[in-house]
Design goal:
The chain is of the alpha+beta class. It is 51% helix and 8% strand. The protein folds into two domains: 2-80, Glutaredoxin (3-Layer(aba) Sandwich); 87-200, Glutathione S-transferase Yfyf (Class Pi), Chain A, domain 2, CATH 1.20.1050.10. Helix 1 (11-22) runs parallel beside helix 3, helix 1 packs antiparallel against helix 7 (163-177) and helix 4 packs parallel to helix 7. The longest helix is centred in the middle third of the chain and has 25 residues, at 124-148.
Length: 213
């Protein structure tokens, strides 16, 4: 039995929903509403002491932090691998995931934006400017990296989705939510379009979740 503690609009939850679906794993989705501060209440804090989503309960074990959970999934369920066999190709795929997971997403996640709003009194147009700065600079670099990759196919690498796509697509969703024009990056747009032909990506989208509103 697998329980996924998730929030529909969370980029880290989104990437884990994709990863679970690509591995063919059914999880019981348990929404944690960040808008009502449910994540900071005792019930969830007893599950995830950081108060962050996602968390994955597997039998009596609770797994936290989406990169570590996805790595565990790759090792526990090696069919439908997230990484190519070639070592340099694996590094390339991991590097794309890291650009999103380390350089773009963390400075645009909810708790950072709430700090900007609440403690620094930033206006909404300033919030959007902040988000755009880091997404645009990250996507500009990614577009160049994708363009230079000779083994780029339908996806970031080759013709099967990899860890790179699992990270990229939720960030594209976030970019659109922050009103960023994606036409600047045709390769990223093409990969997003391709991914969204697959049920694993379609069904993981924020709008498809039972807590979406």
């Amino acid at each position: 039995m697998i329980d996924l503690y998730t929030f529909f609009r969370s980029g880290t939850s989104h990437r884990l929903r994709i990863a679970l679906a690509l591995k063919g794993l059914d999880a019981n989705h348990i929404p944690v509403d960040l808008r009502t501060e449910e994540h900071s209440k005792a019930a969830f804090m007893s599950i995830q002491p950081q108060g962050l989503v996602p968390a994955l309960r597997v039998d009596e074990h609770v797994l936290i932090q989406s990169p570590a959970i996805i790595e565990w999934l790759e090792e526990a369920y090696p069919s439908m691998p997230f990484l190519p066999k070639d070592l340099l190709a694996r590094q390339y795929v991991r590097s794309i995931a890291a650009i999103v997971g380390c350089d773009i997403h963390p400075v645009n996640n909810r708790r950072v934006l709430e700090h900007l709003r609440g403690h620094l009194k930033a206006e909404e147009d300033q919030i959007l400017e902040w988000c755009a700065k880091w997404i645009v600079s990250g996507f500009d670099a990614l577009e160049k990296i994708l363009n230079a990759e000779k083994n780029r196919g339908l996806y970031c690498y080759g013709n099967e989705p990899t860890l790179a796509d699992i990270y990229l697509i939720p960030q594209v969703e976030s970019a659109r939510r922050f009103k960023i024009d994606m036409n600047r990056w045709p390769l990223i747009q093409a990969i997003d379009k391709q991914c969204m032909t697959l049920p694993a990506f379609i069904n993981a989208a924020p709008s498809k979740q039972k807590d979406a509103s």
